[in-house]
Amino acid sequence: IIMLFTPLLTFLNSFSPPLPPSQGGKKGKKAAGEKGKGGKGVGGAGRMNGHYQENGMENLMLFEVVKMGKSAMQSVVDDWIEAYKTDRDMALLDLINFFIQCSGCKGVVSGEMFRNMQNSEIIRRMTEEFDEDSGDYPLTMAGPLWKKFKGSFCEFIAVLVRQCQYSIIYDEYLMDTVISLLTGLSDSQVRAFRHTSTLAAMKLMTALVNVALNLSINMDNTQRQYETERNKNVAKRANDRLELLLQKRKELQENQDEIENMMNAIFKGVFVHRYRDAIAEIRAITIEEIGMWMKLYSDAFLNDSYLKYVGWTMHDKQGEVRLKCLTALQGLYYNRELNTRLELFTSRFKDRIVSMTLDKEYDVAVQAIKLLTLVLHSTDEVLSPEDCESVYHLVYSAHRPVAIAAGEFLFKKLFSTREPEEEGAPKRRGRQSPNANLIKTTVFFFLESELHEHAAYLVDSLWESGADLLKDWECMTSLLLDDPVPGEEALTDRQETALIEIMLCTVRQAAECHPPVGRGTGKRVMTAKEKKTQLDDRTRMTELFAVTLPPLLAKYSIDTEKVTNLLQLPQFFDLDIYTTGRLEKHLEALLRQIREIVEKHTDTEVLEACSKTYHALCNEEFTIFNRVDIARSQLLDEMVDKFNRLLEDFLQEGEEPDDDDAYQVLSTLKRITAFHNAHDLSQWDLFSSNFKLLNTGIENGDMPEQIVVHALQCTHYVVLWYLAKVSEGSHRKEELVSLRKQMRMFCLMCQRYLTNVNTTVKEQAFTILCDVLLVFSHQMVSGGREQLEPLVYSPDDSLQTELLSFILHHVFIDQDDDTGSTDGQQDDEAAKIEALHKRRNLLAAYCKLIIYNVVEMNTGADIFKQYMRVRMEKRFTQTREIGSLERTSNPGNLTLFHEMLSELGTGFDRSSSAFCGIKELARRFSLTFGLDQVKTRDAIAMLHKDGIEFAFKEPSPQGEGNPPLHLAFLDILSEFSSKLMRQDKRTVHMYLERFMTFQMALQRDDCWLPLISYRNSLQAGGDDDTMSVVSGYSSRGSSVRSKKTKAATPTCVFSLAEESSSSSADMSWQHQSMQTPVMMPSPHLTSTMMRGPGDMREEQHPHPHTLPQTPQLHQTPIDYNTQVTWMLAQRQQEEVRQQTNLQQLRTNLQQAIRRGTGLMEEDEEPIVEDVMMSSEGRMEDLNEGMDFDTMDIDLPPSKNRRERSELKPDYFDPGSIMDESVIAMF
């Protein structure tokens, strides 16, 4: 019998985990007086893990090993387990100090503390020893050493639980102590403790979930073996084996009960508090881990009781928390087997997920779209058509990741179904291919998109998910060229236009391999695979379109829009294919079609497309250059000869030319101008003929406006090509003289056309004149081009005046007055928008002259003062980059202020619309300085200096005792006070006091309000360097944990010495500018409690270590000196009072910390309104239909579950941890 059952016992033992060892095992109970700390004494000298310990203090080698990121983490854990089996108190003390060290605390838990103190007392002691000079702790520290710390820390916890899962994890000592410690630390006000312990607790919970999952699998296997054995015949049934299996199942059940209690303690003691923590990082950790629990052990955790936390947190105010919610849900929806358990959650929170596709955080929006794609993949009935349409339009988003995600959603929704192909049947191509209907669907979707009309963005969005479909150019050309089969509906003209545009965009995307304008973040280096794909696509498209493009041009030769798009295709060809593929005859056909299109069309877009196609084909690197160059030269010769002949007849007629002659001249001039844009036509001497044409128009005044417009543009191209030729290399002096002469003559001609009666002509002359002045400015000699200095041209005063006058009379006008470009269609919204764009372009052309100092800088004041009157978008904020904004914004305000005084008089109402408009203008100017105060420091300081001098420059005409004439300007100047650095505010305030008298400082009448408000704006925040001791709302970016004190900011570089009549005053200014306030090293305690205004009021006083500097006494006349001395004495007394109050505050705070006040308090209010939901009504709406009782973790039911007693409240009793507000919320 023994020989028969020995193999069977060996087989059964292979499926069962080893039982815990008797020493320190599960059956061992703690003595009554041990308080969970064990019965063995800790102290004296000893050894643990091979490292000496002296005076009961740990060597903390465990933290050092994890910090260095050793790869052999399992060996480290095994060593610790061996030490635990030898002396569990010493090993556990090492583990406790490991968690303390990982939090950044310099304190160490001694053996005496471990034996005699409760966890709350230990945490309070560690809080007192926390380093307050640094706001960093290991989880937030930067540097290569700390980058991998979080991963190593989490790995250590996971390996520790995995290695202990069959033994000491069930001894009711290790896990009880660790969970109790982490629960207490997670409720600490110290952010480092709370952050680190929450991460440890959540990773510990995840490791326990894995253990519970393994136990569940073993229990199922054991139960199955038991049922199999029991169902056997009585003769074959082994009763001993049944008893072994029953005993094994009982052991597994007890272990599972233990794990359940541990997980319940962590969930109720840590998770239900920290998922609504004030710190976003902590909330993100909890949501990320609960997603892992539901994914790993869906039978126990994937239900509405746990999903509700993820649903609530999707309304979090911080993007990183919302992002964790979506990624957690993605892991659940990816598994189709879990869809039935997610039905209720999906119905309740689907609308929220759909709305998150428009999240202000792009990363959140991307993950929301991906989640909806998974939902769509799992079931097609959940999302309504309205839900899908809200995602469809995002394919036109400017943010590429959002568009790509939306494109994938669109592709799965509309293009995932295609016609099945029969096995063995020949592959259908062209119009009969399976992609034909999908391409039509793409065209239909593009045409039905009412929000956008940009095919390039649609193609880019679908490129990653549907590149094979979009690169089926053979099918596209077949749909355009071949006749439809019987029963097939042909494409309409609008659909053919859309298909050609989409086809062009796909060709461009394949050839250039970068997104369209507005989506790219810069050029990136392509991989070898991408380069090979690009070359293959260019070869394939060239071979196809080299044959099909001429027929397409012939079919649509009279359609302007279609021809314009088709003519752009050769720009992306691999021109070698014409030679290597023996396609020369198709090249000849293409050149013939282009020539016919040039002769047929006069539309500028078509002609420019033809010009660019010739330019792309005329590449000297390819063998087809000679053939294309001959065809281009013949075409240009004919056009120029025809133009000269028509122009001669047009100008020599004594009577007014008829419309037919004017049309012939205009159409030929359009063709020449379009080609001159991309080709050098200098050999035909077009300057003389065009200048003659323009001069005749000035003399007679009856030249058609379109002829003048194109003549100006053509002459502009002549000058620029001449300049390019001169700039390339060696040149003769005669060429420079000739170019200088032509440029001056052309500028004079444009200046004369500024007074033309036709608005279109004037706008064209203005734009070209601004471009020429910018090109031939003093900057053209930079970069080693000093030989071009004779060409530099600076506009005289009369030309600058005319340019400014044009801007004031043609740009800064009311919308209804702009009738020059709308052709009487003022009611047409599109025409108004077009006119607005044209005015913006004109303003941009002139602002470039200001930016590059081509015109006088003070002309910018006349531009700025018009800003608020017409409410036009500012195009001129770039002037700040070269330090000119401070030279123009204040003159602009001064000009408006003078005009207001002349209109309203000195006694104007400060609430009048004129004055409020100037203040609003000043506020907008202040926004243009940006957030970099160091960069704009000098500019802002000089602006305040000039403004103060202007305000006190003119005395009151009513005599002494009345405010200065321009004192109200200080009210405008106060809009710029927020841009001053803290130390500069004090300096400017000192400078202001030099212009004040003692009586001014005491005035409180309404007429002195500008001075009072300006002084208050300078004093606000000037000496306030305090920080809140406790922060309950800030996240990592706004935590009150202060950084180490930085070096003082450099002093202000501008000087006021030339403005002072006393050298001592100069020294006072410089001395005050050197006195940079010192940031106080605030305690690093962050609380999860929601404090009221009264609780925080005491914390708003300055720090006692921040000693305000006593200002130096000014040397001014004797009567004023006495007054200032009295004012300074009052200020010093106030500073002494503040110091006293702050010292008392710090003393009280230190005493409170020692007493432990509030360090272990529970959250008083759930952060539902601030963190989770936007309103209580929404919470009630979300609660409807969900099981929202705070439950115990209940693993899948099993038989013979034995009852267990509650854990001691001293450790982690859920009833003692959860406060009433949490229970009430659920």
UniProtKB/TrEMBL annotation:
Residue stretches in coiled coil: 212-265, 1135-1162
Chain spans, region Disordered: 19-48, 1095-1114, 1187-1208
Cellular localization per UniProt: Nucleus; Chromosome; Chromosome, Centromere
GO cellular component: chromatin; chromosome, centromeric region; cohesin complex; nucleus
Gene Ontology molecular-function annotations: chromatin binding
One Pfam family recorded for the sequence: HEAT_SCC3-SA
Superkingdom of origin organism: Eukaryota
Domain SCD: 271-356
Subunit structure: Part of the cohesin complex which is composed of a heterodimer between a SMC1 protein (SMC1A or SMC1B) and SMC3, which are attached via their hinge domain, and RAD21 which link them at their heads, and one STAG protein.
Entry-linked PANTHER family: COHESIN SUBUNIT SA-2, STROMAL ANTIGEN
Family the UniProt entry places it in: Belongs to the SCC3 family.
Free-text function comment from the UniProt entry: Component of cohesin complex, a complex required for the cohesion of sister chromatids after DNA replication. The cohesin complex apparently forms a large proteinaceous ring within which sister chromatids can be trapped. At anaphase, the complex is cleaved and dissociates from chromatin, allowing sister chromatids to segregate.
Protein name: Cohesin subunit SA
Protein source organism: Oncorhynchus mykiss (Rainbow trout)
Gene name as annotated: stag2b
